[in-house]
Specification:
This protein folds into two domains: 65 residues; 166 residues, Histidine kinase-like ATPase, C-terminal domain (Heat Shock Protein 90), CATH 3.30.565.10. Helix content is 51%, strand content 16%. The chain contains eight helices and seven strands; from the N terminus they run αααβαααββαββαββ. The strands form two sheets. It has a five-stranded mixed beta sheet with strand order 2-4-5-7-6. The chain has a two-stranded antiparallel sheet with strand order 1-3. A hairpin with a 4-residue loop joins β4 and β5. The two termini are 23 Å apart.
């Protein structure tokens, strides 16, 4: 990674420091009542939310650094359970869209309860194939970033429902679809352009949509995979991602 890049310098030096201070301070308030004094349950919940969102901001910062690293082909190979990573990605995506749902998901103690909460909010989760039980071998952090970006976009722009499906016996296949407004034909080629603002003609602002998908596309291609999109204006959008295991 090129440390002389001013953007990288900003990310590493000017943002990581303040975030670390916030994380440390909130953690101390939560865990060191003997030093800082007791807190009420409502205060604890508020601090936990601050902690999670600060961790999310820190994670986003590290994700941006990963974008630059992936361009150099730097991967951290490890085996992981794709269902666990998917659940974490869903929780973090809901933190952005609806923190109350995120709280319920974080507190769920079983797969059944987790899935029931999702169904109550019109999110269908489907995992089939080899990786339901077998670990997947690749860079866990990058797979999680891909899932989180796609799920967050689907939650933002759906009208009422969305579906996340994972399948595959060799490569992993991720499908994320929603029933949102879609994108007009003349703008579809632009959705993977970085820093692009796309204004949907029905007045729905999808600012930031292009940047997130650009990051996702860069990551997927650096991992030897591919992403395709099927968009029907007024009906919805479906993204399909294929990623081979890292040998």
């Amino acid at each position: 990674m090129n440390k002389k890049d001013p953007l990288i310098d900003l990310l590493i030096h000017d943002l990581t420091g303040p975030l670390s201070v916030v994380l440390t301070s909130v953690t101390n308030l939560l865990n060191k009542e003997s030093t800082y004094g007791p807190i009420t349950e409502r205060q604890r919940e508020a601090l936990q939310r601050i902690l999670r969102n600060s961790q999310k901001a820190q994670s986003f910062l590290y994700d941006m650094i990963e974008i630059y690293r992936c361009e150099e082909g730097v991967f951290k190979k490890n085996s992981f359970n794709i269902e666990s990573v998917l659940k974490e990605s869903l929780c973090e995506a809901f933190e952005v869209i609806d923190s109350e749902v995120a709280e319920k998901l974080y507190r769920s103690l079983s797969r059944e309860v987790f899935n029931q909460i999702l169904e109550e909010h019109n999110v269908i989760l489907e995992i089939t194939g080899k990786y339901l039980v077998s670990p997947f071998m690749h860079d866990e952090k990058k797979v999680k970033q891909i899932l989180r970006n796609l799920i967050t976009n689907a939650l933002k722009y759906r009208r009422s429902r969305m579906k996340v499906a994972i399948s595959g016996d060799t490569e992993i296949v991720i499908t994320v679809e929603d029933d949102g407004p879609g994108i007009t034909e003349d703008k579809r080629n632009a959705i993977f352009k970085r820093f692009l603002n796309i204004e949907e003609n029905k007045g729905i602002n999808i600012q930031g949509f292009g940047f997130g998908l650009s990051c996702v596309k860069d990551l997927i291609e650096s991992m030897g995979g591919e992403i395709t999109v099927n968009i029907k204006e007024g009906v919805g959008t479906r993204f399909t991602v294929r990623i081979p295991p890292l040998i």
